[in-house]
């Protein structure tokens, strides 16, 4: 049995915390501004940002919780709580997007002229605040942080669209652009959130991470000297960033202790490039039966 553990200082929690306070403060400004400017696009973004703020708050709490050490109840530790946050956040955003669409579509039939000047000021502020949040969250490896970064990046792009639309409306009488922008932003967000949800669900259901070729790993391990075969080989992810691996390796009945140690060392070298939180290698001699058969 081989045990391999490594722990590192996680800066994700601090990054999510700063992004949460940035986003929540701006959401309040945005809600007031949306009402004052009578802009559906800004109110849509405000509702979306409110969902983001709740999501960031939840992500901050669960990311902090996920860094706790293992316990008798959670022998693998609490890393999957971070994945739970990513799952809940995706669902919150999908529900919010559907609500926004139900509010924006009727405006297409009966558009109202918003305050374009106020929209320009709010959109510029939105680009700066959400841009700062993206800058703070960028480069994350955990699924939780990646989902949050996408949320913030989508907001920056959304505010860019609002800025363009508000500038056009400032010089022309085209109030229908407001609900069109709102629907466009929402559909774009919905598309990316569903993609993230599918990926998060795959990790939740303990699928092999997309970027790892398990068959290739098995082939390489089987080529190690004194390895007859492998079976019960499993690779799954704790949180999208840290993974776990287990396998049964069959060696000749006459294999010496040194040969078995060499097999295990070479197997670990093959697994080296993968960020593994847990590795379990069970050695079986060819004349013994597998405990899981």
From TrEMBL:
SUPFAM superfamilies for the chain: Cation efflux protein cytoplasmic domain-like, Cation efflux protein transmembrane domain-like
Compartment annotation: Membrane
Alphabetized UniProt keyword annotations: Membrane, Transmembrane, Transmembrane helix
An example molecular function term from Gene Ontology annotations: zinc ion transmembrane transporter activity
Domain Cation efflux protein transmembrane intervals: 16-203
Membrane topology: Multi-pass membrane protein
GO CC, alphabetical: plasma membrane
Major localisation: membrane
Transmembrane segments: 20-40, 83-104, 116-135, 156-174, 180-198
Protein name: Cation transporter
Species annotation: Halobacillus litoralis
Lineage: Bacteria, Bacillati, Bacillota, Bacilli, Bacillales
């Amino acid at each position: 049995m081989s045990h391999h553990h490594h722990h590192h200082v996680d800066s994700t929690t601090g990054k999510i915390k700063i992004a949460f306070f940035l986003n929540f403060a701006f959401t309040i400004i945005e809600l007031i501004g949306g009402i004052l400017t009578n802009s559906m696009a800004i109110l849509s973004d405000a509702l979306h940002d409110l969902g983001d703020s709740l999501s960031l708050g939840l992500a901050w709490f669960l990311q902090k919780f996920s860094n706790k050490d293992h316990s008798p109840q959670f022998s693998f530790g609490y890393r999957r709580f971070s994945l739970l946050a990513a799952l809940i956040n995706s669902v919150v955003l999908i529900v919010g997007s559907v609500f926004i669409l139900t509010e924006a579509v009727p405006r297409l039939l009966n558009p109202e002229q918003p305050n374009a000047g106020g929209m320009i000021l709010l959109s510029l502020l939105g680009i700066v605040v959400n841009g700062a949040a993206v800058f703070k969250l960028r480069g994350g490896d955990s699924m939780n942080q990646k989902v949050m970064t996408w949320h913030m990046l989508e907001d920056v792009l959304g505010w860019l669209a609002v800025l363009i639309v508000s500038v056009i409306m400032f010089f022309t009488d085209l109030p229908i652009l407001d609900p069109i922008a709102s629907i466009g932003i929402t559909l774009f967000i919905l598309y990316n959130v569903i993609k993230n949800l599918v990926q998060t669900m795959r990790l939740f259901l303990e699928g092999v991470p997309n970027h790892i070729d398990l068959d290739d790993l098995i082939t390489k391990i089987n080529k190690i000297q004194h390895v007859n075969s492998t079976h019960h080989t499993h690779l799954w992810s704790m949180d999208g960033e840290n993974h776990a691996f287990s396998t049964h390796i069959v060696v000749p009945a006459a294999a010496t202790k040194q040969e078995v140690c060499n097999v295990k060392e070479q197997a670990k070298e093959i697994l080296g490039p993968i960020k593994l939180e847990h590795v379990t290698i069970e050695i079986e001699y060819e004349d013994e039966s597998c405990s899981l058969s």
